Amino acid sequence: MNAALPGTAIRVERPTKTLRELALDKVRDAIVDGYFKPGDRLVERDLCAQLGVSRTIVREVLRHLESEGLVATLPNKGPIVARLDLKEAKQIYEIRAALEGMAARLCAEQRDPAIAEALEASLKAIRESYAAKDMHGVLSHTSAFYQTLFTRVDRHVAWGVVNLLTVRINHLRSMTIKTRKRDVEGPAQMEKIVEAIRKGDGEAAYKAAHDHVTNASAIAEAVLSAQQTAE
Q1: Which residues have CB under 8 Å from 52's CB, separation 6+?
Q2: Are 220 and 89 a contacting pair, CB within 8 Å?
């Protein structure tokens, strides 16, 4: 007679995400990573086949992505990948510069070596992701860098504001991180933020964070302007 199996040996674990959430992640990543490009039609039937999910789920996913600003619905054409708007992008970078500069200054004023160490760990992961041509990793570790910047000084409300814009920020970031020399210049600018925080220099930390965002904004503006000209 076979020995009884432990009570949890064959338990079916519940998935951490629903099918809808998994489909949402897949389509969002496909847009942010450039698989679906601005202006591309998002045909429900095709997405059902590609994702292996029902039309109901696809419609829910498209509605959610429209609320995030990644999808637009045009009359007589249906859902398309939203085109990044230059004026809107400028406003997003203005918000980032103000909030990230503030957070960097506060981190420096904390004079806590653990903050700089945590930021350096994320920065190291960003460089490794660039070296491996892992752009998704670059985005993920960059988000972790900024989460540390805000949460280590208990600025959760500010981080919440940034999080509301995260999808659009990453959509813009996915363009700027692929531009020439960004794999070197971006981390170098972020290193200045870390160095200023490590030294406890609030003004230098604010300036480094502000300059980094301003530089990214200029790159995004150039890319978006070139796209509009090509169209």
Answers
A1: none
A2: yes
